[in-house]
Amino acid sequence: MELRHLRYFVAVAETQHFTRAAELLGMSQPPLSQQIQRLEYEIGTPLLKRLTRGVELTDAGRAFLPDAIAIVQLANMALEKARGVARGMSGQMSLGFASSVAFGALVFDLIRAFKTRYPAMELITREENMALLMQDLGEGLLDAAFIRLPCESSKAFNLKVIATEEMKVALPASHPLSDLQKVSLAQLADESLIIFPREVAPSLYELIVSTCLRAGFAVLRQ
Predict the structure, then answer these.
(1) How many CB atoms lie within 10 A of CB 33?
(2) Alpha-carbon distances of 13 from 7, 21, 24, 75, rounded to whole Å
(3) Domain containing 8: what range?
(4) Average per-residue pLDDT for the chain
(5) For the chain, where are the E strands, in sequence order?
(6) What does the pLDDT look like over 7-24, one tens digit per residue?
């Protein structure tokens, strides 16, 4: 049994059509049909019912499909792992996170996709404030980092924006403004605001402070 036969069978089973499967595989239909017949001959039983329009799995085909998919996926992973080693995509990668960035769903999705594509790579993660992340990147202690902009010292590195977020304000449930969908900065002028220390993210801190000043009130600096 050849791996390509399993790939062909999975494609036909998932599309339920020889023509569409052939297009997906980049081949013509007659050779695909012949290869499926060879697979069925080797197994000793039909895997597909040929219908007027399309195909459907036989009982044997339904039993065979999950294992065929698993084998194809395992082969793909092994191939990608070998290619990754050849490209140097094996070993360890140090990845930093600014505070709260690690809780974003997009970050988890990116890491999951990276691990799927490069299973041989071990990720070592750490959470630090922005200043320490920039320092560690500059000293080569980190290979990459997820940060929040603005960050003045980040201009020394290659940056890629992966998402934008709105600024949020957290209020007690009993607060008069808590029922509003949006709150302007002017409405917060008489409130005691809690903000992170400046050393955690200096540029972001200054942005918040200056924005509040433009709205007509000052934030108590820490």
Answers:
(1) 18
(2) 10, 8, 12, 18
(3) 3-84
(4) 84
(5) 48-50, 55-57, 91-98, 121-128, 144-146
(6) 999 999 999 999 999 998
Please answer whether residues 102 and 127 qualify as being in contact, where contact means their C-beta atoms are separated by less than 8 angstroms.
yes
User: Residue for token digits 């201009």?
Assistant: 155
Q: Are 180 and 131 in contact (CB under 8 A)?
A: no
Token pair, residue 32, equals 């695909």
CATH number at residue 24: 1.10.10.10
Nearest to 222 by CA among 199, 204, 203: 199
pLDDT at 82 over 70: yes
Asked if 10 and 67 count as a contact pair (C-beta separation under 8 A), the reply is: no
Please identify, among 54, 84, 114, the residue that sits at the C-terminal boundary of a domain: 84
């949020």: which residue's tokens?
168
C-alpha 131 chain-centroid distance: 26
72 and 51 in a single domain? The answer is yes
Query: Which residues sit opposite 146 in a β-bridge?
Result: 97
Q: How confident is the model at residue 218 (pLDDT cuts 50, 70, 90)?
A: confident
- DSSP annotation of 126 reads E
Position 161 in a domain: no
- 3-class state of residue 97 by DSSP: strand
Q: What percent of the chain has pLDDT over 90?
A: 29
Q: How far apart are CA 31 and CA 27, in angstroms?
A: 8
Question: Rounded to the nearest 10 degrees, how much is the dihedral formed by the CA atoms of 7, 8, 11, 12?
Answer: -150
Predicted TM-score (pTM) above 0.85:
no
pLDDT at 71: 94
Amino acid identity at 201: A
